[in-house]
Amino acid sequence: MLDVQFGQASDFGKVRTNNEDAMGSFVPASRQQARSHGFLFAVADGVGGMDLGEVASATAVSVLTEEFAKAQSGSMLISLMPRLIERANAAVHDCSLDKQYRGQKMATTVVACALRYDQAVVSHVGDSRCYLVRNRQARQITQDHTLVNEQRKMGLISADEIAASDSRHVLIRSVGPEMFVSPDTTAVTLQPGDVLVLCTDGLHDELPEAEIAAIASQKKDASEIACELVARAVEIDGGDNTTAQVIRVRSVEQVGMYRGRPYRLPI
Length: 267
What we know:
Low-confidence stretches: none
Structural class: alpha+beta
Shape: globular
CATH architecture: 4-Layer Sandwich
Helix content: 25-40%
Number of strands: 12
CATH class: Alpha Beta
């Protein structure tokens, strides 16, 4: 069956006095729950320049983990995950209307990854990312919802120019400001030995994919790897909060799907 090891780490950085990043997880309590629900991991980054970014990120992660735990047994992850992010968006938006927060705008990015059988489903809004590290190579699963990334897709700016752009952190989509949001969702078939890295921009702004892959491919505990990724990013700059979750896939359960229901493949 699916077996994963995970670790996480977060750091204020060298400049910030508070941490607007948040992270959370749902780990099944039994083999049965691993098959009926699976695992969930989530990272969020409260948007700088808005009020109460830490409230927005913590609210989003809390809603995702709690609603995932309450989801109907056997729910299809590819449709469940965007629905959960839409609920998180509604919760953050409603926070800004609460008496204690009235008039204070809040927003957050979020990336969430659910795993079950041999599948990972990644859903996200904003520029927090998910990488898949396989055979010592890192592949970015998510695409940033930023102005410069849209310009890149239209051919107006090169990938190399993004890092130097003053607009590289301008989001075109985030959780909270509007009543509705449209997350992007991607499914990935997992293999034993794969490592998934969920992180905020405090990490991926500083570490190139090659360095993320090199650190994540080490034969260390996932918690040690998460701490090393964060420490290395803070060492390079440290101007932002930095957060990473590391999920190492130790084994998978291969299944087929028929009318939305899984069945075991013949050996």
